[in-house]
Each structure stands twice: as structure tokens, then as C-alpha cells.
Amino acid sequence: MKGSPVSSQRLSSWITSCIRTCYDLAGVSAPHLTAHSTRAQASSTAFLAQVPIQDICRAAVWSSVHTFTAHYALVQQSRDDAAFGSVVLHTVNETFAIDLIAEQPVNKVESRVISCDGGGGALGHPKVYINLDKDTKTGTCGYCGLQFKQKHHH
């Protein structure tokens, strides 16, 4: 009936028919097509077009990349790439920031008390003051981990 809402079954049938026609026009025999296979085709095509896997999962209402890799990825490369991407996204290096700070040299300063604001601006942190009273003392900022040491004049 004209003007009536289209059912999901009717829409799936149209999409399946369109995909079958594309296979025919390309001179390739079409596999058995179902609503499930059209979803697989669409998500795999999006992935191969380098659409971020999180966007594909969000559009398909999948809570996990595993759903795509296990059930919908048509090309093995898609499965492998998506699985690799998932591992990279979920790998956490808990000492990354600590390692970066450890690479920074100790800042030599003239005064006995210094202030640190992490570089200031939007990327900084609240200003803190650090006492550098002792000859061997290296002061460390509790926010950003930068280290300071007083220069001694002999």
C-alpha cells in the first residue's frame, strides 16, 4: 500500500535483490544471500574502506569487535586486521607515562624553592611549590613527575 511504512523484511529483500544484481552485473555468481549476509557484506565493505571498526560496531549496534570478526567479516584479512586493531586498542602500558618522565633530565634551578605548573595553560596542572633545601635533594612534582635540583655555586 502506497505511503505505508516498509517492513524490515521488505527492506532486507530489496537490499538482497540489489546485491544479487550487482553480482550479476559483475559477471560473478552470487553466493546464497540472506539478511545476515547483507549485514556481513555491508560491514566488511565498510571495514575494507577503512571505516574505523568502532564506527562499524556502533552503526551495527554491536558491543564488541568480536561480533564482527567472528560472525560478519567476509574476508580473512578483515578478521585479522580487526582482531589486531582490537588488541592494540585494548593494550594498556601502565608505565607509559612513568617511562616518559624517567627520560626527562633533572631540571637544574637556581632557587631553593621552585614552582611547577606542568607547562601552564590548558595542558598544565595546579601550581605547586617544591623545596630544594638539601644538597642532594631532588624535588619531584607530585602532579607531572618532573624533577628539579638546586644548582650549587662553589
TrEMBL record:
Its job: Accessory subunit of the mitochondrial membrane respiratory chain NADH dehydrogenase (Complex I), that is believed not to be involved in catalysis. Complex I functions in the transfer of electrons from NADH to the respiratory chain. The immediate electron acceptor for the enzyme is believed to be ubiquinone.
Taxonomic lineage of the native organism: Eukaryota, Metazoa, Chordata, Craniata, Vertebrata
Family in the record: Belongs to the complex I NDUFS6 subunit family.
Keywords recorded for this protein, A-Z: DNA recombination, Membrane, Mitochondrion, Mitochondrion inner membrane, Transit peptide, Transport
Signal peptide interval: none
Name of the protein: NADH dehydrogenase [ubiquinone] iron-sulfur protein 6, mitochondrial
One matching Pfam family: zf-CHCC
Subunit text: Mammalian complex I is composed of 45 different subunits. This is a component of the iron-sulfur (IP) fragment of the enzyme.
UniProt xrefs under InterPro entries: DNA_brk_join_enz (IPR011010), Integrase-like_cat_sf (IPR013762), Znf_CHCC (IPR019401)
Bilayer topology term: Peripheral membrane protein
GO biological process: DNA integration; DNA recombination; mitochondrial electron transport, NADH to ubiquinone
Subcellular location: Membrane; Mitochondrion inner membrane
One GO MF term attached to the UniProt entry: DNA binding
Domain Zinc finger CHCC-type: 112-148
